[in-house]
Each structure stands twice: as structure tokens, then as C-alpha cells.
Design a protein that fits this description.
alpha/beta, seven-stranded mixed sheet, about 575 residues, homodimer
Chain lengths: ~575, ~575
């Protein structure tokens, strides 16, 4: 009898359930639930829409996650046309750090009438950026105390991460802080809702809550130095027993079985993160092969045998991606976002008109023109920091630059230079890893961009000097979650006993490989040398013009706001 | 009886004649003759259009200049409705260096049947850029020999200038070089045609042919070092008696009177250059007031009491602008050209649509949006070198840069940053002059841009910290030529005895003055400091990335051309 698994991928705007065949990883049916309350960034949802949010806030409604289970899972099963009884496991992946305060029984404080008008009771979405003052404090105190974990996170903790958000609650809403029995990743919270079992997965614990298998969480002395009331945040508000990726979290409760139409007792995998779960879905279970999730931003992951501090990593976590290996994560905060910005703001009508005539997307029209150029022909060089620099500089205050423009410069040339700049940024990450002894022999790309933009893939191959393959699935997060579900179920139930077996059976690459072109690579070596010089000049303190311009801008904006 | 004068302004695409009232400088009528053969840059005109020109070539047909006299002057007189007998003088200004080879009697070699199929027989227009190898040789030999005049020209002679073009003729067409009795500026050639008298004006001689009142032309030893055949270029092909701006060149011949409908014997002024003749037309006859002709490029002129080497000047010439004073000239090679490039290549449809709805030009629509921003609010900083840098770096191989872009950057912000960058470039010139002891107390703008773009004028005032006035005339070259014609005629004939008197009577400013805003100026001081740092970093050798990118581009283009 065939067995199936379900992967549920919780994104920023919607949740997606996909039914996958355990035997070969085929996608049989899927369904998307667009969150009723989406990203909450102006006011709380009605009837509390008189409560306005400050800039940089981004919340979500935990009920939207439950509705994803209730609506998308049954719809995906129906679309797949399979018998729900043959579904042997469920796995979920989530954006991170997306966290919420809850009662000891799992009730979100947003669902408690006395708290629901307080924005701090709601889910703080990954892109909630209002906790920067707390992140600054977290970093400063860690530097002052010489906390050993800091170098493993590129020397800087993000405002997006767990303690920044928790500390903001303590700072701004101590009554919510006090009322919360738990601060928990939404990833773990939804697994708790499915199984009735509270777990903490090693991926978000490691990458977002500074946990390590060796040393656990930071000590209470450190937390006390942030705020005496914060000293015991781990013991009072969290959970010390971190469970490795790949374990079974529990089994589907009667209640959750009723929501989803699945059998009670169905295996549920420990929660995971959308990017990290893509690694095995992109066929990678061994060191030396980098997976890049390429979309609005890039997330780079590679497995290592040893732990090593690599400059500007987002983190390195044992069991963070696969059990028994060290998962290195780096990132570029703007990639597809930069191309979209350019198209939305600096591309003249003729390219839109040409695209319309040819029935293609304007990105495709620009790519077609850009592909007519050879490496170096535009004369342009860009720094890809229009959305800051995540790795390896870890600096949100940097900005973008385009150099080499002449009166002959045309939009497709700029478009190509932006693609090239993101490729140089990736090469910087690859080289930083290799310099620290973490090999990157080849690359597997997944996400939205690789399936759309062949020029981009070839440029990445030429710039990095590495072969690039593309994952066959266009839904690697959901596939990856389903693969972990098959491992949670185990071979005895029709799944697999480990992720290597699951990967061998369920994950495949497209029959499309990008090999570096020697001539282009030679030109890009020269351009990359220029990129590196400017990267260090503007990014490492020789000329902090970008930061001063930003400060001048912020002052001008304040002045304009005052009128 | 009222007296009138005619100014004839020879531009790149057409010649314009304007009839001006001597009493008050009023423009009474004008006419434009578009050159029949325009800019000749692909093939020679028919029937010789099988002769193709190499890239970078730009020629003109000397007959187009005569047709300007024959058609535009009578038409302007008719339009003015004045009696031709009351016209007391004619003055001309020209682009420069625009030069041609001629016979001893003034016949252009292009009109000699045996030479007319040789492109070197034609007029080399100012923007003929094919003599770069010769310019390189001229500069190298001058540096090696320590020629004293080199620092007065910013340390570098342009491929556009007189000896570069003459030497190219010698290099590539020695038969034309031998056949030429004269190499002459078109400015002087047309005056020769009007009067029958060969003169060489001090303006083009000084700025384009390295003449100085004190030292004359470079010595034959220098020219011999370029090429032994070139040793006596001055004595064999030119004319040593340079005549000061403001003198009378001669009187209208019978032949030219018949062309134009003017009286034979009408005073004709010594020829001049379009930019330089604008200085008195912009009311300036004394040191301390800079005139900027603002259009596709900027030309900056200021008068000084003394000669001083100023870094990156185009030149400093005694009697070059006004008799008895030293005329300093500097320039920015891209200004309006840069705004036009941006609009043509990087502005999305919405601004064109908005402009169409409001019945305004797209530049005006962008300016309106840009004017809503305060200084510094865009967060952007640009280097205005999309067409190279004329002053003060004198480097055509530099290119443009835009720094500070974020995903929130919009087209009007970039537009404003480009305006600001050209203002910073002007401030760099102003400061270089003042550091060398040449004061710049205020600025008068003329040309096409000041009448169209108020935001630009205000930004220039804020950035330079100087009051900016605008010349009333929109045709300052033709007005200036007419003023010099009134001086050539003299008071006895109803004109003026010197240019100060003519200026007092004939030139006026608009009732519109731009004063620096203290708050904006303070912000721009900070942005200018950033500009200066990057100006020096990219422009003075610390990082020659722009040149290397250009070299990489050129190699890529060669590769692409080879296929």
C-alpha cells in the first residue's frame, strides 16, 4: 500500500499544505490558505482596529496558523485524491524567528480577552523590526562580557531574533511578560497544537535563541546584565530540553485529527525552519555542498564536520540542519527584492511594452537583453546592499552603490550589474566559509529565482567558479517538511529511518546544471577583486559614507515630519 | 536715429542671427539656419557619401557657415523690421575648437575638387574625438619637456583642441597637411570671409592653441619633438599676430554685403567663442563674478587680475574673455546631458504619464517631486562623471557613481542627487579657484537650464553658498556677439567705446535671485565633504576602479565585436 506524508509550509502571507508520495517525493496535491489577518502592521484586527501599531512592527494572528491546518490540509488531501488513512506523517516548517507569548497550556495571550488589545500579546513575525534598541543592548552587553557564543553569530544578534523580541516585551509591556508562561517559536507552537506536546526544535533554538548542543543557552548572568528581571528567562519562560531536528515530536491529537481529517496518532515531526528544511529537499545531506534558497533574499546553508567561527555567519548550529552535523547559515538580505526595486522604480516603459508584446514578464525581457552582454561589457559594478548586508558584514545600515555609469548606460546593463553584485556577495560568503575550513565544492539552488532566471544561475556559476544545480521541486520547504515527516514516521510505518534514506528516495535535481564558463570566470575574477576592494572600503570602516548619509537622511526625514 | 547690431551665433547644428538694439540690448528679431549638412559623422555628404568616417569623427561643411550669413542675417533683419542701413556692426561667436585647413586666399580645402573626398579636408568640429592619440603625444612630450604652459591648462590638453586636430591631419593625411596654407579656427575663418581680412582672435588662440600674450605660442623645439615636420606649424600654417577680443577685425566686404543685405563697410568684430562671449552678456565685466553657461555641459568663467595656475582649469588666458584681464575657464563635461540620460533610460512610465496629464515636460515633473525633498533626504550621493570629468580632474576615463540606494529609493530622489552632484562639481571648481587666489563672490547663470529649472538654481546656491543671478537673455551668445559688434563700431558710429559701456547699456539680469538657504547649506556642507572624499578616492588614484572597469568593458566590447 502506498504511503503519503504531508508538509506544511508556514510563509509570511499564507500557509501551504502539500501531499507527497513517500516512495518518490512526487507532489500529489496542495492547497494554500492565505492568512485572514495576513501581516498585521498598521492596526490590530477588528474589532480592535483602533489600536495602532508603531512603524517597524509586524504581527500575526495565531488563529491563522490553526486555520491553515483546518483548511489547507483537508483541501490538499482532496486535491491529491488519496486516502487520508495512508498518510503516515506530518511535518511543518515556519518563518523564524516568529514567536509568541502563551499560557502554560499553549493558549496564546492574543486569545486571552484581557490581553488581546495589547499588541505585545500577538505573534511577532520574523520581520518585526521594532526591537532594535533591545538588539543593540544584547550585542553591547555580549561584547562587554566577551560572551563566547557571539562569534558564532557573526558577532551580532539581529533585532529579528528571539531575545530581542522577548526583551522588547519586557521593556514595553511588563504585564504581558509577567502573564506569559511561555515564549515560543510559532514553529514549535503549531506542533504543540497538533500533538499536545511542547517541544523546542534544535534549529530555531540554535539559530534564533543562541542555544548550542555543547553549551546550552547563555547563562543567567548574561541575561541579568540585560535586565535583572530577564535573568531567568530560559527557566521561567522557555524550555531547556531542545529536541533535534529529525526526531518525532509526538502524535496527532484527537482534536487535531478532527481539524485535518488525518488519523489520530499520525507521526508529527519536530518543527523546522523553511530555509533549513530545504537542504535535504535540495538533495544535500553531506558536507561540501552549499544550498542557496534564492528569492527576495538569499539564504546560504552548508553542512560541516566541525564547528568553526566564520566571519559574518547568521549562525552555526550543531543539529541545526541535519542531526550530527554543524549547520552553517549565511544570508544576503536583498536579492530578488533588489531586482524588483529596480524594475518598479528605474525601468522605462519600453521594456514593459516589449515584454507585453512578447507575452513575457518584464524581468524576462530585461534578462533577455542583459544576456546579450558578456561579462564586464556593461562597465558597471554594484554593491548589493540596498537592503543592508547580512553576511559577511552584518550591517543593516549599509546601502547600495552603482559605479561606472556613462551616458551610454542602459537599463538592462544596470539590471545585469545588480545580478552580478548579488553573485559577488555570494562569492564573499563562499570564500569566508572556505577560509575558515568549511569547504563549498558545489552549489544547489532552490527557491523562486532559479526556476525563472537562467542568466542569474549562469552568472552565479561564473562568479563563484562552482557548478550549480537546481532542486527539482519548486516547493522545497513543503517537500522538506514532508521528508522529515517520513523520517518521524519511520520505516516501520512506511517512512524512512533517517534523512539520508528519505533524501535518496524523495529529493531530486533538475536535469539542468550550470558550469562556470572559463572566459567569463576570468573576467569576473577581475570584477570581483574590484567588488572586494569597495566592499571593504565602504563596509569595514575605511569610509563610513553610507552610514553618515543614512544619518543625514534620518535627520532630514525628522525635519520633514516636523514640517 | 536708432542703431542696431547683429550677433551671429554658430552652434553645433545651426547658426542663429539676432538683431539687437544698441541702446538697450533688446532682441528685435532673429532667424536660425539649420546647417544643411549638420554634423557629418557617418559619411561625407553626397555625392561623396561612399566615403565613410571612422568612429569618433565629427566634421562640418564650411559652406553651411556661409549659408548662415546668406540666409539667417537677411531673415533676422526682416523679422526685426529695421532698416539695414541702421545696422552698425556684426559680431560672431562659434563653437571651439572647430578648425579647418584652407588655402592662402581662404578657400577651404573641402571646396577644392582634388581634396574634397578626403575627410581631413573638411572642418573638424569641436566634438571630433578621433585625435586622442595625438593629444596623448602632445601631453606626454609637454610633460617630459616640462613645458611651462601645461599647468595653465589643467596639466592636460584635450583631443578637441587645435594642435591635436592639426597633428592628426599630419599623421593621417600628410598631403592635406602639405596643401594647407592655413589651419584656422572656423570662428576666424568666417570673419575672414566677411571682411577679407585674416585675423586670429585671442580667445581661441589662448584657450585652444596654447597662445599667451606674454609668451606667444609654444616654441618650435616643442613642436619638432612631436614630429619634425610639425616644427614650424605656427609660421607655416597659422598666423602670429593675435588680435584681442574687442578689436575690430575689419569691415564688411562688397561680397559679404551682397550676401547679407548689410552696408559694405559695416564694422565686424574679432571672432569669439560662444561661452566666452556670454560673460558680458551676463552683465559681468569685472573680477569676482563667475558666469556659468549651463546646458548639456557647464562652462565656468571668471575674470582675474593676475595669472595663477589653478588645478584642472581648461585654461587661463590674458585678453581671453575681456581685454586687460585674465580669463579663467573651467568646465563640467556632463550636466543637462546627465539629466537627459537619466530621463531617457531610467525613469518609469508613471512620471511621463503624470507629466502628460499636467501638460508639462517630464523633467519638470521630476523636478516638482524632487523639490518636495529637503537637502539630504534622499540619502543618495552621486559622482557626476557619466561623461568624464573636465575640471578639476581633467580625466575623460572617469565614470558616474550613485551611492546610498535602498529599496525605498525612488526616481525623483535619484534625479535630485544628480542635480546635487553637478552642484558639488561646480563647488569643487569654485574652491579650486579661490584656493589659487581667484575670488568667486557670486555667480551669474545663463544658458538653457537656468530658465527651466528653479530647483537646480536653488541647489547650486545652497551648495556653493553663493548668490546666483540669471542673465535676462536666453540667447547670451548672440547678444554677446552683438555687444562686441557695438564696441567694434565704436561710439562715433553709434556704438560704444568699450565693453563696460556696452554691458551697462545692453545686458541685464532677470529679476530673480537665488540666495543660499542656511539650513540647506549646512546639510550640503556635510554632503559635499562626502563628495570630496569620494571625488579624491576615485579621481586621484587611491582607487582607479573606474578606469579598470572601463578597460575591462573595452576589452569585452572588442571581444563582442570579434563575435
Amino acid at each position: 500500500m502506498p504511503s503519503y506524508v504531508i508538509g506544511v509550509d508556514f510563509g509570511t502571507e499564507s500557509g501551504r499544505a502539500v501531499v507527497i508520495d513517500v516512495a518518490d517525493g512526487r507532489e500529489l496535491g496542495s492547497s494554500v490558505y492565505p492568512y485572514a489577518n495576513g501581516v498585521i502592521d498598521k492596526t490590530l484586527p477588528a474589532p480592535d482596529d483602533d489600536v495602532r501599531l508603531a512603524p517597524e512592527w509586524a504581527l500575526q494572528d495565531p488563529d491563522d496558523y490553526l486555520r491553515t491546518f483546518q483548511q489547507a490540509i483537508p483541501a490538499a488531501i482532496a486535491a491529491a485524491g488519496v486516502d487520508a488513512a495512508s498518510i503516515i506523517g506530518v511535518g511543518v516548517d515556519f518563518t523564524a524567528c516568529t514567536m509568541l507569548p502563551a499560557r502554560a497550556d499553549g493558549t496564546p495571550l492574543a486569545a486571552v480577552p484581557q490581553f488581546r488589545r495589547n499588541p505585545h500579546a500577538w505573534v511577532k513575525l520574523w520581520k518585526h523590526h521594532a526591537a532594535q534598541p533591545e538588539a543593540d543592548r544584547i550585542n553591547q552587553v555580549a561584547r562587554e562580557r566577551g560572551e563566547a557564543w557571539l562569534p558564532m553569530y557573526g558577532g551580532k544578534i539581529s533585532s529579528e531574533w528571539f531575545y530581542s523580541k522577548a526583551l522588547q516585551i519586557l521593556d514595553e509591556a511588563p504585564e504581558i511578560y509577567d502573564a506569559a508562561d511561555r515564549f515560543i517559536e510559532a514553529a514549535d507552537w503549531v506542533v504543540w497544537r497538533l500533538t499536545g506536546v511542547e517541544t523546542r526544535n534544535s534549529c530555531t533554538a540554535g539559530y534564533k535563541a543562541i542555544w548550542s548542543k555543547q553549551d546550552g543557552f547563555p547563562g543567567s548572568g548574561y541575561f541579568a546584565a540585560l535586565d535583572p528581571r530577564f535573568a531567568n528567562v530560559v527557566d521561567e519562560k522557555m524550555y531547556r530540553d531542545v529536541v533535534s531536528i529529525g526526531d518525532k515530536a509526538g502524535e496527532l491529537s484527537e482534536e487535531a485529527a478532527a481539524w485535518t481529517g488525518l488519523r489520530p496518532g499520525t507521526a508529527v515531526a519536530v518543527a523546522n525552519v523553511d530555509a533549513h528544511v530545504s537542504v535535504p529537499a535540495a538533495t544535500v545531506t553531506e558536507p561540501g555542498r552549499m544550498v542557496i534558497v534564492m528569492g527576495t533574499s538569499n539564504c546560504h546553508m552548508v553542512l560541516g564536520e566541525r564547528i568553526a567561527p566564520v566571519q559574518g555567519m547568521c549562525g552555526v548550529v550543531e543539529d541545526g540542519i541535519l542531526p550530527g552535523l554543524f549547520g552553517y547559515e549565511a544570508g544576503q538580505s536583498g536579492v530578488g527584492d533588489i531586482f524588483a526595486w529596480f524594475v518598479d522604480n528605474l525601468v522605462p516603459a519600453e521594456y514593459f511594452e516589449q515584454a507585453a508584446r512578447d507575452g513575457i514578464d518584464v524581468h524576462e525581457a530585461l534578462e533577455r537583453e542583459a544576456a546579450k552582454l558578456t561579462a564586464g561589457q556593461s562597465g558597471l559594478l554594484a554593491l548589493d546592499w540596498m537592503n543592508g548586508n547580512r553576511s559577511v558584514l552584518v550591517d543593516v545600515d549599509l546601502s547600495g552603490m552603482i559605479l561606472g555609469a556613462t551616458l551610454a548606460t542602459r537599463a538592462p546593463e544596470v539590471y545585469r550589474s545588480l545580478i552580478e553584485a548579488t553573485a559577488f556577495g555570494t562569492r564573499m560568503i563562499v570564500e569566508s566559509l572556505e577560509e575558515a575550513g568549511v569547504p563549498v565544492n558545489d552549489i544547489v539552488a532552490c527557491g523562486g529565482l532559479p526556476h525563472k532566471n537562467k542568466l542569474l544561475m549562469q552568472i552565479y556559476a561564473d562568479v563563484t567558479g562552482r557548478e550549480i544545480s537546481v532542486a527539482a521541486s519548486t516547493q522545497t520547504p513543503a517537500l522538506g517538511s514532508a521528508m522529515w515527516a517520513a523520517v518521524a514516521a519511520g520505516a516501520v510505518a512506511g517512512g524512512y529511518d533517517d534523512i539520508k534514506q528519505a533524501t535518496a528516495a524523495m529529493a531530486t535535481l533538475r536535469d539542468e546544471h550550470y558550469l562556470p564558463d572559463a572566459a567569463a570566470a576570468a573576467v569576473y575574477d577581475r570584477l570581483y577583486a574590484e567588488y572586494k576592494t569597495l566592499h571593504d572600503y565602504f563596509g569595514r570602516g575605511a569610509n563610513d559614507a553610507m552610514k553618515r548619509l543614512r544619518a543625514i537622511r534620518d535627520r532630514a526625514l525628522e525635519g520633514a515630519a516636523r514640517g
